[in-house]
């Protein structure tokens, strides 16, 4: 069958996403909507359809397979656009293989102590004041420091990167040129960083990837050799994604805990319950409401609806993770129930490369915060909290706390 071809009004996805998702999900599995850029897209809402589509090779991430006039997402220069979020196999397989070893469970666990030292240092700076903005003072700087240490980014550049990332995540409607300026600044930054690493390699992931790019496995022209654009784009994606997803999950988790004082007290007494709480927050109020857009390589049926080749498909992770067809009482937050199969980190070959690192960072962030400030509380009314106006990122603009 076909869905209504008139795009639906989905402003509720910005202002109050979960009731809007529930209404769309119950009305039908697939909806024609207007994307953030004003162009049409197809929104998939139910768990089984979303999970199946995430692993469907007929749904391409390569924007060259999309029709003109459909939603495409970020507009980036080629040197930043040749990243894993725009690739299908075999290029996706080739590039991902170069960095996957940096995110194995063993390597991530070895980073736990250094991440805790970073968290403690940020809390040291906050402690004497008695109040703070958790996002600006803790949830934001921590993942930036972690991923910058992993890639070997100098300390002097990290504050600039925060500003550029925020300009891309939540563009100022009164300054439409801001996002374009941020992209230009990022491109210059990555180009300069890669040149510096070539001149003076370090013991970091970016230096290792540069060596692979310049030498290639098996010598020049080896099968794992990267183009220069792929190298720059990979650095961009690791820094940007490593920041955006973690800062929002820390903020959303702390906000949710402050709204549940009994759970907060239980975690202070038994912090070994934190991993299960993080997993449930990832499902219940995760940082990525939508997967990266996809383009059918042929006319494809999703949930009984025919979507034409080349049109944009958006998979609603937020809706799927609260689908009562798969999860019992999905709108009830309950970390004591194992809800297997949530899609907060994706599914299939595009499953989030940094998921183990993200989980560890959020776990350390919560452990350190609750240990240092057992009396942490919200410093404004809940109604005053402001969420970023974005359908692709779910996160707080600020989270004022006191202790």
From TrEMBL:
Keyword terms of this UniProt record: Heme, Iron, Metal-binding, Monooxygenase, Oxidoreductase
- Pfam families in the record, alphabetically? p450
Describe the family membership recorded for this protein in Swiss-Prot or TrEMBL. Answer: Belongs to the cytochrome P450 family.
Q: What is this protein called?
A: Cytochrome P450
What organism, scientifically named, is this protein from? Answer: Streptomyces coffeae
